[in-house]
């Protein structure tokens, strides 16, 4: 009997001894067996690494590509509600049958000869790459899962490499040294292929790697940039593949970081597509990304789970008219810096609901409440889960109040499911 997608996901979760094992040897060996190196995945392959901003950059580049007549495929992680969200073709999630067929081929290849063990993420990445190779779109956009140099996505050479930001996160795997983190992210760079750097400041290790590989680098604030206009619109200036300066005016706010929007436009130009004004406006006005400043009535949901991302969320909320009260429904994994995240959000949050997250990396609501109390914050409720927190808060929410749901993909995913049932 053939396995369903849920069967495969359950199987992959338990088949490797650890959830995360960085390194390319095992993945590359299976990729070779699968024939993934026989020809390019797409006409243009873009790899996106960084601490924050990867998902929004992918979403905007994907939308811009489609608005300019390109067929697109994108691979991102993690997902919010359905695994299918990780692989999209022309903006639509992959069908179960596509994913299952990929898992079947990966399983056969890893057992063909000496068995090779793969993690959940590694098997999923190879299955996604197979599906993209079958379609061979104009533009394939691959989001790095963790780090860069040793991440499974890095088995594929890209035509354009993107590094969005570099900040502290995933210390258990990447350490606390920003120069070391930068070295890992810069592992996606390839000799002779252009790089787009979406931060005005990156560790020196990135610059060193650019020089070593003779990479044609395009820096935010140097080769391309953005500026906001008084009208609320913004302008982009960048360079074409030939090095000519290019400018677009009166672009709409996509509701996502403009640094990342500027990156997406610059990548498009380096893929040989000169961004057109009207197509770019249409794309940026219509882009959406679940779990990134996503509004459902008075509820704002964002997956920010480190201080750098939380500061951006706080800056966006600070631009809005202040509600009568803004309540933060917060759930944070044990390996994240809860105190720093709380400090970043505190200026725009008046009171908190602390919720627990399950699993080996989970942090209980009681533990989180202690961190909140240490920051002299008012804790309205301690709940065992995001769903329980939503169920408690929803009927108590008053006119003029807002809720920020934040702290983890897990927090936002569970809250979204609970909100959908509450709003039915």
Task: Give structural notes.
- This protein is α/β, with parallel strands linked by helices and 424 residues long.
- It has two domains: 5-286, 3-Layer(aba) Sandwich (UDP-N-acetylmuramoyl-L-alanine:D-glutamate ligase), CATH 3.40.1190.10; 294-423, Mur ligase, C-terminal domain (Protein-Tyrosine Phosphatase, Chain A, Alpha-Beta Complex).
- The protein is 39% helix and 18% strand.
- It contains 15 helices and 17 strands.
- The chain has helices spanning 5-15, 25-34, 54-67, 96-110, 120-135, 171-174, 178-185, 204-213, 258-270, 277-286, 307-318, 338-345, 365-374, 386-393, 409-423; strands at residues 44-49, 72-75, 87-89, 92-93, 139-143, 160-163, 195-197, 217-219, 225-228, 234-239, 245-251, 294-296, 299-301, 325-330, 351-355, 379-383, 401-406.
- Strands 4-3-2-5-1-6-7-8 form an eight-stranded mixed β-sheet, with helices on both faces. Strands 12-13-17-14-15-16 form a six-stranded mixed β-sheet. Strands 9-10-11 form a three-stranded antiparallel β-sheet, with helices on one face.
- It is globular, with a radius of gyration of 21 Å.
